[in-house]
Automatic annotation (TrEMBL):
Protein name: Fimbrial protein
The keyword Signal appears for this protein: yes
Keywords, comma-separated and alphabetical: Signal
Domain Fimbrial-type adhesion, chain residue ranges per copy: 35-188
PANTHER family: FIMBRIAL SUBUNIT ELFA (PTHR33420:SF3), FIMBRIAL SUBUNIT ELFA-RELATED (PTHR33420)
A Pfam short name: Fimbrial
Superkingdom assignment: Bacteria
Protein species of origin: Paraherbaspirillum soli
InterPro entries attached to this UniProt entry: Adhesion_dom_fimbrial (IPR000259), Adhesion_dom_fimbrial_sf (IPR036937), Adhesion_dom_sf (IPR008966), Bact_Fimbrial_Adh_Pro (IPR050263)
């Protein structure tokens, strides 16, 4: 009986060894594959309704200015964006332009080139704001973060902007007072 038992164990051992070798042989023929994923998740973007926001400040009398910091009437224009969705919409608005010199750097300077034969107004600059007051002042180094908070059916969202002339010198001199500045919108 011992011999039959040994034969059974011998057959089981040989079968196990054959299975082990077959498994090892199959496993050694396998190759590893690297799965590589590329892409990005992009922020929601909007369409700007116009590439130029024009402020017609009009012909302002030098008599309107009575000292440094006084200014003309505020004129409002809105930055209007059409956004398909405001979910996750965050943006920064940054402004570039030349600042006035010295302690009045919070204002945008008038460019010296106003066109052929035109004299530049003196003692004034442009003040930009998010309100019709200086407490919302925008400077050449301002970054405004904006996130529309409520949806509307038209998908149009407005950000208020105001502009005016402001006295920056001891006296205001008459002349042309045209200017342009850049606002960049960065989605994040």
């Amino acid at each position: 009986m011992k011999s039959a038992e040994q034969n059974t164990w011998k057959k089981i051992s040989q079968t196990a060894l054959t299975v082990l070798l077959a498994t090892t042989a199959i496993g050694s023929e396998a190759a590893s594959v690297t799965i590589s994923i590329t892409g990005s998740i992009t922020p929601t973007t909007c369409t700007v309704s116009t590439s130029t926001i024009s402020f017609a400040l009009g012909a302002v009398s030098v008599a309107k200015f009575s000292g440094i910091g006084t200014g003309s009437d505020w004129v409002n224009r809105d930055l209007t964006l059409n956004c398909p969705s405001i979910t996750g919409l965050n943006m920064d608005l940054t402004f570039t332009g030349n600042s006035t010199a010295g302690s009045l750097r919070q204002y945008f300077a008038l460019p010296s080139n106003q066109g052929s034969g035109l004299t530049v107004a003196s003692g004034v600059a442009v003040e930009l704001s998010t309100t019709n007051a200086s407490n919302g002042r925008i400077t050449a180094t301002t970054t405004l973060s904006w996130r529309p908070t409520s949806s509307n059916s038209s998908n149009n969202y407005s950000y208020p902007l105001y502009a005016r002339y402001v006295q920056t010198g001891a006296a205001v001199g008459a002349g042309s007072a045209n200017a342009s500045y850049t606002m960049n919108i960065t989605y994040k």
